[in-house]
TrEMBL record:
Organism: Endobacterium cereale
Stated family: Belongs to the short-chain fatty acyl-CoA assimilation regulator (ScfR) family.
Keywords of the record: DNA-binding, Transcription, Transcription regulation
Domain of life: Bacteria
UniProt xrefs under Pfam families: HTH_3, Peptidase_M78, ScfRs
Name recorded for this polypeptide: ImmA/IrrE family metallo-endopeptidase
Database matches in Gene3D superfamilies: lambda repressor-like DNA-binding domains
Length: 472
C-alpha cells in the first residue's frame, strides 16, 4: 500500500456527505487543510497511507470501501452504450470508469432506465404482433434506425422486383457466359469499364471483404470469401453498373425517408440483383420445379451456395410464372434475426419465427445437416420448414467461426410438391410451435422462455407446471 497511490476523491466526498460534514469539518478531523481535502475530492491529490489510517480511525471507515470495485458497473454501462440507439455516443472506457466512480447512483439509474426501455420495447413489439395477428395494423413498433426501416419495408412486401428480374435476364442473354460465370463477369467489367478484380490476403485487408478503388479501377476481394461469395460480390458490382436503372427505379418506388436509408436499401437491391444474375429467373424456376425444389440440387446446378439458392427460392413470385411461396429467415447462434423475406412477404402474424422449438435453433447442434419439420401452429395451420447452418467468411486460427442458421419454409399444403414433403411426414417430425413465447398459450411447454402477455401468471404454491412460467 505504501507504494500505491489511491485516487478515491468521489468516494471520500460520498463518505463526507453521508456523515453530513462540511469540507472544513472533515479537514479539521483529519488534521489537514480544507483546500487539501478539496484537491483530494477532485482527484487532484492521492490519499496517503497516513490519511487512510486517519480516515479509518476517525470515521470508522473500512479501507476496502475506498478500493475501486466498479468493474461490473462499468461493464454493464459499456453494454448499454453498445445498443444501436446509443452506438454513436459510446464514451471511452475512462469516461465510463469516471461515471461509475464519481456517480454510481446515477450510473445505476441509467441501467434501470435502459432495462425498462428494453422491456417496454419488447412489450410494445409483442402487442403490435398480437394486434396484427388479429387483423389490426398498428404503428406502435415503428422503426428507429435506418437499417430497421429498410428491414421492415423488405419484410412486409413480396421479395420480388420485376424490373431487376427483366433487366438481369436480358443482360445474361447478351453475356457470353459459357460454363464459367465468374470469368464472364470479370471480363465484362474489364472490357466495358476497365475494372480489374483482385483477391487480397487477410493481412492486407483484415477488416473488409470487398473494396472498390475508384482511382485505380480495381475491385479488391478478401481471400476469406468462399468462391460462391466472391461470385456474388462480383455480380453485385456488375449489377450496379449494368442494371443501375432498374435498381434505381425499384428504389424510387420504395419511397424511403432519407438518403442514408436509400443507401442501405440500394445495397440490398444490388444483392438481390446479383442473385438474379447468378440464377436467372426463368431458368431457375424451371430447374426448381424439375428438381422439386431440392436446394442441394439447385446449388450444384447453378454453382452457388446453399444460402444463395435458398434466398432465390424466396423470390419466385413473377405473375403467371411463380414458384412455391417460400419464406425464410436467418439467425446467429445467439438468436439474433439477421434478415427475413418471402415471396409473398414474411408471415409475421401467422408464423412469427421466434419459437425456440423451431429447427433453425437445433441446427447449430448439427452443423451442415438439413433438418426438415412439419411445424403446427396454435391455430391449426401447418408449415414445412427446412433448416441448415451456414458458414461465414473463413476464420483464422485464433478466430471463432461465424456460423448462422437459415430456415426456409412454406405452407404445408405445398409440401407434396417438394422433395422434403415425405421427410416432414415421418414420425417425430411434427413440431408444436407458436409465433413467440409471449403470444403463445400452449400449456406445459418445456421450451417456454417468457410468460404470455395474454394470460395472467398462475402462482400456485401447491402445484408447479412443467413450464418455467405457469399461467391461468
Amino acid at each position: 500500500m505504501a507504494d500505491r497511490k489511491i485516487f478515491a476523491g468521489p468516494k471520500v466526498r460520498r463518505i463526507r456527505l453521508g456523515l453530513e460534514l462540511t469540507q472544513a469539518a472533515m479537514a479539521e478531523g483529519l488534521e489537514i487543510s480544507p483546500s487539501y481535502l478539496n484537491l483530494i475530492e477532485r482527484n487532484q491529490r492521492p490519499l496517503t497511507v497516513q490519511l487512510l489510517l486517519r480516515l479509518a480511525s476517525t470515521y470508522k471507515i473500512d479501507l476496502e470501501a475506498l478500493q475501486s470495485d466498479d468493474g461490473a458497473l462499468v461493464g454493464e454501462l459499456r453494454n448499454v452504450f453498445r445498443d444501436p440507439l446509443l452506438a454513436g455516443e459510446l464514451p471511452g472506457d475512462q469516461e465510463l470508469v469516471e461515471m461509475a466512480d464519481a456517480a454510481p447512483n446515477t450510473a445505476g439509474g441509467i441501467l434501470k432506465l435502459y432495462r425498462a426501455y428494453r422491456e417496454q420495447a419488447a412489450r410494445l413489439s409483442d402487442l403490435a404482433e398480437l394486434l396484427a395477428r388479429e387483423g389490426h395494423e398498428t404503428g406502435m413498433a415503428a422503426t428507429r434506425l435506418p437499417a430497421d426501416e429498410v428491414r421492415d419495408r423488405f419484410e412486409h412486401r413480396p421479395n420480388f422486383f420485376a424490373r431487376i428480374e427483366d433487366a438481369a435476364e436480358a443482360f445474361v442473354a447478351e453475356l457470353s457466359t459459357g460454363d464459367d460465370l465468374v470469368t464472364s463477369l470479370q471480363e465484362w467489367l474489364k472490357t466495358r469499364h476497365g475494372i480489374v478484380v483482385r483477391s487480397l490476403p487477410v493481412h492486407v485487408m483484415p477488416d473488409l471483404k470487398r473494396r472498390y478503388d475508384r482511382h485505380s479501377l480495381r475491385l479488391f476481394l478478401s481471400e476469406r470469401l468462399s468462391a460462391h461469395d466472391r461470385l456474388r460480390e462480383i455480380a453485385m458490382e456488375v449489377s450496379l453498373l449494368a442494371l443501375g436503372e432498374a435498381v434505381a427505379a425499384e428504389l424510387e418506388d420504395l419511397s424511403f425517408s432519407s438518403g442514408e436509408v436509400k443507401r442501405i436499401a440500394r445495397f440490398e437491391l444490388a444483392r438481390y440483383a446479383a442473385h438474379a444474375l447468378m440464377m436467372p429467373y426463368s431458368a431457375f424456376l424451371s430447374a426448381a420445379q424439375r428438381a422439386r425444389y431440392d436446394i442441394d440440387v439447385l446449388r450444384a446446378r447453378f454453382d452457388v451456395s446453399f444460402e444463395q439458392a435458398a434466398n432465390r427460392l424466396a423470390t419466385l413470385a413473377r405473375p403467371c410464372a411463380s414458384g412455391l411461396p417460400f419464406f425464410l429467415f436467418e439467425i446467429d447462434n445467439a438468436g439474433n434475426r439477421l434478415r427475413r423475406a418471402g415471396a409473398q412477404g414474411y408471415p409475421h402474424a401467422k408464423f412469427g419465427g421466434l419459437c425456440p422449438k423451431l429447427g433453425v435453433h437445433a441446427a447449430f447442434a448439427q452443423p451442415g445437416q438439413i433438418l426438415v419439420d412439419r411445424v403446427e401452429m396454435p391455430d391449426g395451420s401447418g408449415y414445412l420448414t427446412v433448416c441448415r447452418t451456414l458458414e461465414g467468411p473463413q476464420a483464422g486460427f485464433n478466430e471463432r467461426v461465424r456460423r448462422t442458421a437459415i430456415l426456409i419454409g412454406c405452407d404445408f399444403e405445398a409440401a407434396r410438391d417438394t422433395v422434403y414433403g415425405e421427410a416432414a411426414n415421418r414420425p417425430g417430425a411434427n413440431v408444436l410451435a407458436g409465433t413467440a413465447c409471449r403470444l403463445c398459450e400452449r400449456r406445459g411447454c418445456l421450451s417456454r422462455a417468457e410468460p404470455p402477455v395474454t394470460r395472467p401468471l398462475g402462482l400456485d404454491e401447491m402445484a408447479t407446471g412443467l413450464s418455467a412460467f405457469d399461467f391461468r
